[in-house]
Every structure is written in structure tokens, then in C-alpha cells.
Design a protein that fits this description.
A hairpin with a 2-residue loop joins strand 15 and strand 16. Helix 3 runs antiparallel to helix 4. Strands 1, 2, 3, 4, 5, 6, 7, 8, 11, 12, 14 and 17 form a 12-stranded mixed beta sheet that branches. Strands 9-19-18-15-16 form a 5-stranded mixed beta sheet, with no helix packed on it. A two-stranded antiparallel sheet has the order 10-13. It is α+β, with helices and mostly antiparallel strands. Helices cover 20% and strands 36% of the residues. It is globular. The chain has 7 helices and 19 strands. The chain binds 2,5-dioxopentanoic acid and magnesium ion.
Length: 290
């Protein structure tokens, strides 16, 4: 099932995207189907009841032809955590940019993964919304990442696409600048939908593609398969949960392996398109922040 939020006639509805149609569950019952959170409350986190509740709701729901522009961020206000250096390509890119040699080699090989708090729920954008490049960075990139939505027990609720925008010059200057390289206004995007695990039985075997367009011309494209990831999703979730407090929903970005060449920087006016097999397409225009 693909859960989403979308602009309906006069409000934002929660619903399901299926076979080219958007089913408006909120219109069926605006308490139970207010959003994914209220549905999760209703079924007390029981996954098969969640699917049953949604498919029963779909039978009574009004449906509208799918329109990408109507989609909104699928879960609002959730914390975002991100894993780093989970692919060999990321390790190589960071080792070559940093003055602190050996740091990323260590993290790639270590038992403990790199996990950082990317957003507390106030900087993230949804499909079609503008994402930012820091005004004080001259080398910034998008990072296309398979993103897991988990609950307070770190159980997988679904999968989506994430963009962990990063300033590589700030990150490369000193590893202690990581939060500034990674956390700023409009520094991430997630969406377009939350795909439940029954539709993605093998999340570590998905093709990820990224295209960057400038003045409608393709200036970069790359791809990777999540099978290249060194860590497993359960391993990352175990570390995320350990001695931590999680909200009802948290996004976990699982790391990047698509790295544009070192002379490439994202610019205001660019368009970033990220596609993940079985999930869909996340498109965001870029603005240069002041
Ligand atoms: O340590 C830097 C962050 C790495 C990262 O975000 C990634 O590998 O995706
Ligand atoms: Mg990343």
C-alpha cells in the first residue's frame, strides 16, 4: 500500500495512491484517517490491521486521478535521522574531501554505524517543494537515499525516498562542522509516498537513480542499487533505538552512494529528481539561501 497526503478540494487529505488513483480516506472518516498517526493509533500499531483498515476505507472513499503536484509531505513533523558512510563510494568521497584522513575509513569498517540527527521535523520539505543550498557553501550536493519510516519501537512502517542535502566544503573543512553541513533551512526532502513493507520485501535490492537538471538540461545522472549498502536496515534501526527515545514516527535515511564529480555544485534553479524502484519519484527545485 502507498500512503500519501494530497491537496483535495479545500484541504489536505490523507489517503492511498493505487493504480493511478488517489483515494481520499480522510473524506471517509476524518478522525480515524486524519493521517498515518491517527490510523496507527486506531490499530495500536498492528501492521496487518493497518492494511485491512486502509483497504476497507478505500472501498468507501472518493477517488481522484493521480496528480503529482497535489502531493504533500507524507508524514508531517517527524524527526529525521541519517546514516552515513554506509556505501564504499561515500567513504571514498569523504576521505578525499577531508583534511582529517582516516576518519571515514574507520567509520565504514567499525561495528557502530554513523547516525546523526538530520532534522527535528521543521526543516524538511515534501514533493515539489524548494530545497536549499547554503549561502555560505560553494560545494553542495543532493544525497539520494532509501529512507525508512519507523515507529517508536524502531519497527519498519514503510519506505520512502529521502534527499540528505549536504555542503561538502563545510563537511570537508572539519568533521565537527557536520551539523552545519547537514542541518539548515530546507536541507532535506522526503516523499512522495510511504510504501508498506508488503510491497517491498527486499529493501536492500532496489535501484536508485538521480538526475539533476539545469535550465531543462541534464547536468548529472547516476544510479546505484541498495544491495551495495554495507550495513543492513535492521542493524541501523537497532543502533537508532538503543538507549534512545523515538517519537511515534521517525525517518531514517540510509546513506548515499551517488556522488556527483568534485567540480559539480548544486545551484539555485536546479531541479533534483530521485527515483527509487517500487517507491516512485521525488522532485525538488533548488534555491540558494541567503
Ligand atoms: O559523515 C558524513 C555523512 C555521510 C552521509 O551523509 C552519507 O554517506 O550519506
Ligand atoms: Mg547522506
Amino acid at each position: 500500500m502507498k500512503f500519501c497526503r494530497f491537496q483535495s478540494s479545500n484541504d489536505i487529505s490523507f489517503g492511498v495512491l493505487d493504480d493511478g488513483w488517489l483515494y481520499d480516506l480522510t473524506g471517509v472518516d476524518n478522525q480515524i484517517f486524519k493521517d498515518l498517526n491517527s490510523m496507527y493509533d486506531k490499530v495500536q500499531g498492528d501492521y496487518s490491521s493497518l492494511l485491512k483498515l486502509a483497504s476497507d476505507g478505500m472501498k468507501a472513499a472518493r477517488k481522484f486521478p493521480f496528480n503529482y503536484d497535489s502531493l504533500r509531505i507524507p508524514v508531517k513533523g517527524a524527526e529525521i535521522w541519517a546514516a552515513g558512510v554506509t556505501y564504499l563510494r561515500s567513504r571514498q568521497a569523504r576521505e578525499s574531501e577531508t583534511k582529517t584522513k582516516g576518519l571515514y575509513d574507520y567509520v565504514y569498517e567499525a561495528a557502530r554505524p554513523e547516525l546523526f540527527l538530520k532534522d527535528t521535523g521543521i526543516r524538511c520539505k515534501g514533493p515539489g517543494e524548494e530545497v536549499g543550498v547554503r549561502g555560505d557553501s560553494n560545494w553542495s550536493v543532493p544525497e539520494p537515499e532509501l529512507t525508512v519510516l519507523c515507529d517508536e519501537e524502531a519497527r519498519v512502517v514503510g519506505y520512502t525516498i529521502g534527499n540528505d542535502l549536504s555542503s561538502r566544503d563545510i563537511e570537508g573543512q572539519n568533521p565537527l562542522y557536520l551539523p552545519q553541513a547537514k542541518v539548515y533551512r530546507a536541507s532535506s526532502a522526503v516523499g512522495p509516498v510511504i510504501v508498506t513493507p508488503d510491497e517491498i520485501p527486499s529493501p536492500q535490492s532496489l535501484e536508485i537513480k538521480m538526475r539533476i537538471k539545469r535550465n531543462k538540461t541534464l547536468v548529472f545522472e547516476g544510479s546505484v542499487n541498495t544491495s551495495q549498502m554495507k550495513r543492513s536496515i535492521p542493524e541501523l534501526l537497532t543502533y537508532l533505538k538503543r538507549d534512545n527515545v523515538l517519537n511515534r514516527f521517525t525517518f531514517l535515511m540510509t546513506g548515499t552512494s551517488i556522488v556527483p564529480p568534485d567540480d559539480f555544485t548544486l545551484q539555485g534553479g536546479d531541479l533534483v529528481e530521485i527515483e527509487i524502484e517500487k517507491i516512485g519519484l521525488l522532485t525538488n527545485p533548488v534555491i540558494k539561501l541567503s
